[in-house]
């Protein structure tokens, strides 16, 4: 007989019958210490004891069979991987918990799910009321909101980068070589091309060597060069901005420094007035702008969302990047468009439809519950982290503006933008969406009673009460 450790089952059997370990020992004709060892998986369940248990308590031998805990282990590991919880639990401890105390493990999973639901509901309700959520935010969320409150425009860095670009005489599409020369001449930094595994670049400040992954496209390489040049040229200003942000978390300050260096890099590779002039001339054609400046679709879209300099504003855009699962990994806005923090985004939003047409630019006129209309364009972008067989990555990029600006975009040509426009009603996430008649609703709206009829059904999920 294969050794069977069934401590949790033996304990459950004893406690269900309100027996002490001594009483169970007397019933089985064994010592209390033996029972204690059985319950703590110190000794396996022997055939003789198994027969006594089944005969004494009328349970089937299958009751003590080893259980498949793979799913439970995965659920518990997900609980302890929650980045909102302090501390860490080793995989061994998780395995021990699920093996020895499966009922406790299930309770932990259930409690965590209720906790997450409560956090999401509270966040949704406070967001609806316009209340501050800073204390509950994660570091990356604090950084994202720092840029959001500034309309994704940092004037001091933008002007500094533009001046440096002019001083270095960087030419669109030929920036990479100019940045390599600038790093060498101004800071004594040598640039080399070396394999870095999954990394894109590494800078050794002591040796003054900047290593770039050979697989980087020219535009990607230029952006990485520019981000390190940003730290060398404007590191003090970047540090001041990060310190003045008022973050209590060092991780948030470091992430903001990275975000500011990347912002400077975008402004250096795509200098403000030169880029804005090209955008207006080409009517914000992202594909043509990508070709003219030698950078990717995502980089152009992100830069377009930052053109809010006083006296020289471009179209105010919202920028978003999502994956197939609906996770929003980047979101910035120079408009009043509100990205939902909870409950996911609207499945009717064109950004998600882009995955069904890889590489094509799709457009949509979307109307929010408050009646405000936006013009959106979306397209997928793909990337690879290695050679054949290595997992790649695919995102959908969305760029949107208020409908009144759409006439300035080449993508609105031939579309009805007035009273006859084909409008798609969308919301800001099911949990806070006010639309009662949406057939795509995934969750009921928080705080709104439902109409529940046991003897009727309809096409609308979670219909609201009259």
TrEMBL record:
One MF annotation (Gene Ontology) recorded for this entry: DNA binding
GO cellular component: cytosol
Residue ranges the record marks as coiled coil: none
SUPFAM superfamilies in the record: lambda repressor-like DNA-binding domains
Family annotation (Gene3D superfamilies): lambda repressor-like DNA-binding domains
Pfam assignment, any one: ScfRs
Alphabetical list of PROSITE patterns matching this protein: HTH_CROC1 (PS50943)
Annotated keywords: DNA-binding, Transcription, Transcription regulation
Domain HTH cro/C1-type: from-to ranges: 10-64
Family that this chain belongs to: Belongs to the short-chain fatty acyl-CoA assimilation regulator (ScfR) family.
Protein name: HTH cro/C1-type domain-containing protein
Upper lineage: Bacteria, Bacillati, Actinomycetota, Actinomycetes, Pseudonocardiales
């Amino acid at each position: 007989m294969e050794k069977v450790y069934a401590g949790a089952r033996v304990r459950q059997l004893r406690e269900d019958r309100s027996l002490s370990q001594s009483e169970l020992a007397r019933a089985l004709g064994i010592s209390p210490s033996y029972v204690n060892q059985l319950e703590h998986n110190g000794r396996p369940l022997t055939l003789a004891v198994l027969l006594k248990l089944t005969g004494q308590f009328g349970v089937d031998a299958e009751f003590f069979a080893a259980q498949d805990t793979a799913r439970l282990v995965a659920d518990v590991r997900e609980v302890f991987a929650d980045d909102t919880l302090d501390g860490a639990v080793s995989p061994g401890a998780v395995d021990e918990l699920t093996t020895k105390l499966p009922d406790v493990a299930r309770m932990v999973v259930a409690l965590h799910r209720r906790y997450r639901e409560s956090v999401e509901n509270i966040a949704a309700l406070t967001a609806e009321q316009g209340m501050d959520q800073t204390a509950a935010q994660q570091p990356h969320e604090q950084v994202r909101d720092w840029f959001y409150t500034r309309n994704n425009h940092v004037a001091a860095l933008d002007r500094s980068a533009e001046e440096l670009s002019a001083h270095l005489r960087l030419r669109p599409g030929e920036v990479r070589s100019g940045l390599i020369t600038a790093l060498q001449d101004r800071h004594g930094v040598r640039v080399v091309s070396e394999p870095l595994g999954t990394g894109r670049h590494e800078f050794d400040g002591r040796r003054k060597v900047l290593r770039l992954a050979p697989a980087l496209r020219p535009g990607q390489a230029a952006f990485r060069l520019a981000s390190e040049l940003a730290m060398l040229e404007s590191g003090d200003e970047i540090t001041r901005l990060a310190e003045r942000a008022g973050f209590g978390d060092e991780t948030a300050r470091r992430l903001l420094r990275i975000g500011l260096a990347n912002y400077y890099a975008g402004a250096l590779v795509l200098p403000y007035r030169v880029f804005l002039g090209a955008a207006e001339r080409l009517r914000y054609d992202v594909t043509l702008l990508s070709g003219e400046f030698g950078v990717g679709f995502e980089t152009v879209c992100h830069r377009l969302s930052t053109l809010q300099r006083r006296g020289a504003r471009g179209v105010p855009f919202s920028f978003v990047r999502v994956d197939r699962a609906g996770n929003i990994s980047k979101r910035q806005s120079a408009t009043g468009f509100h990205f939902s923090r909870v409950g996911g985004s609207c499945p009717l939003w064109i950004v998600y439809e882009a995955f069904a047409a890889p590489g094509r630019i799709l457009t949509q006129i979307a109307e929010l519950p408050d009646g405000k209309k936006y013009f959106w364009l979306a397209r997928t972008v793909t990337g690879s982290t290695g050679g054949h067989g290595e997992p790649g990555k695919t995102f959908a990029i969305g760029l949107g503006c208020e409908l009144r600006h759409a006439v300035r975009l080449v993508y609105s040509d031939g579309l009805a933008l007035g009273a006859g426009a084909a409008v798609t009603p969308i919301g800001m996430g099911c949990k806070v969406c006010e639309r009662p008649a949406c057939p795509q609703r995934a969750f009921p709206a928080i705080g709104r009673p439902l109409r529940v009829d046991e003897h009727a059904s309809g096409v609308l999920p979670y219909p609201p009460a009259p």
